[in-house]
Design goal:
The two termini are 15 Å apart. The protein has one domain: Rossmann fold. It has a five-stranded parallel beta sheet. A two-stranded antiparallel sheet has the order 4-5. β1, α2 and β2 form a beta-alpha-beta unit. α1 crosses α2 and α3 packs across α4. The chain is 39% helix and 22% strand.
Length: 136
């Protein structure tokens, strides 16, 4: 199942323009999709750039800018210490403060659905991870 998901994720990343040598920023907690993203990047000879979910907004601004990634993978939220904590919202704040390569029209943010709660959404930029993988 893991290898099948990695193949589907690689195909999805390729549809979003990821090619050999490109960077994919991964801003995920410890979830299976993090491993799947790593395997998918390997299949495309793309580089995975890890953006730890513990980074603050200013740190994320710097790291996303340095990464040069046009495709980013994040989660809507995560469970820590028995509480639901935002993940995508932090990345959204960093991207709004200029933490990205190129303009927003060049960026894709794939969002892993972890928690049943409302999530901010930027049409044209944000896409659900599971829907992207189901297009194969």
């Amino acid at each position: 199942m893991l290898l099948d998901q990695a193949d589907r994720a690689a195909a999805a990343l390729a549809r979003f323009g990821v090619r050999a040598g490109d960077r994919v920023a991964v801003h995920l907690p410890l979830v299976p999709e993090s491993v799947i993203a790593t395997l998918a990047c390997g299949r495309l000879d793309a580089m995975r750039v890890t953006l730890p979910v513990s980074l603050t907004v200013p740190e994320l601004v710097s790291r996303t800018r340095e990464s040069g990634a046009r495709v980013m993978i994040t989660a809507d939220a995560a469970f820590w210490d028995g509480a639901i904590r935002p993940v995508k919202a932090v990345l959204d704040h960093a991207l709004a403060r200029g933490g990205a390569a190129g303009g927003s029209e060049d960026r894709t943010v794939l969002v892993v659905n972890r928690c049943a709660r409302p999530v901010s959404w930027t049409p044209g930029r944000d896409r659900w991870w599971h829907e992207a993988l189901d297009q194969n």
